[in-house]
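BUG-369 | component: ligand-complex export | severity: low

The export step for magnesium ion jobs runs without errors, but we want the raw record kept on the ticket for reference. Input record follows.
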Amino acid sequence: MKIRSVNSFILDIPTIRPHQLAMHTITKQAIVLVCIQNEEGQEGWAEVATIGGASYGEGTPEAIKVNIDTYITPHLIGKNANDYAKIMTDLNKVVRGNYFAKSVVESALIDLAAKEKQLPAYELLGGKIHSSLPLAWTLASGDTAKDIAEAERFLEEKRHRIFKLKIGKGDPYKNVNHVLEIIRSVGDRARVTVDINQAWDETTADYCIAALQEGGVSMVEQPLPTWNLEGMARLTEKYAVPIMADEAANSIHDVFQITKLRAGNSIALKPCKHGGLLETKKVAAIAEGAGFGLYGGTMIESTLGTAVCASVYSTIGEFTFGTELFGPLLFKDRITVDNLRFENFELIIPDGPGFGMEIDKDKVEFYQR
Ligand code: MUC
Ligand code: MG
């Protein structure tokens, strides 16, 4: 079962509406797919997503692809996918950083190894604890009335009752009022959280978090830039509302520092940030050991990438803040034959072999750059 080839592809898939973040408005989302084939012709597939080129973080789709093709692939050819843990340990000694690239490669190895054994991937990750997970939605149309209408529709359809608002762009004080209006409108039928995506300075954060806490916001994600761990610690100490580290919480070493400094009291997990599924489990363990709450984060992956995240999240004990694996619902189309199921405010964990998603090669060709 030796690895014969590794291929990577960049795809751009349109979204159902503009999705406005602090640094970028998504109208089509870039994903990187990896296909690893063994000598018997069996394939393992995985996906990783990025947001807004280089504006969200260092992991751009172009860099992910070129680093996989140039520096990672030579270390995979001739190896056995079943040795995914050893392959990734060895790879970390010869390829530094490149968390997104390593994450998608490791996931494709795990998909192949699990398919060879005819098992769901979560069986290779410790086994499933959850059959479904709570599913947040991001209200990010940029318009209060549209956001309220969207929230009402999803409450009615029993699709989401956790709403995250992206409030890093524009006037912070107006944005706080936008949040408070939405909280007043949904009342106690839903939880409302906010994500600032690093956009505030500490003085602005101090002023705005006071108003958000008073108004009933249930969590504040990454209010300050990633470098300002001391500022995050001061906000965490001062306010009762949970403060979550997202962009700051990448490697196990970052997360260890965050827990040690109490620079937040919860962590948004994302396999791409941590460098893979095995690293995600380590990050979750550090957070759990420190008494931090967990959130199952997304970089807005399509069906395949969402199934990858869902697979590892299903093996982690507790998500105080639920998950936000809504990516497929924001895409206009999908690149898998299988679809994910969303029922009663939750995402159902797929149970097929590997990540449970068969790739649609015509769609891959259609959306490929
Ligand atoms: C982020 O920072 O959390 C997740 C949901 C969403 O709307 O954007 C992403 C990125
Ligand atoms: Mg975030």
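Assignee comment: Attached the raw record above. The chain has a mean pLDDT of 97.
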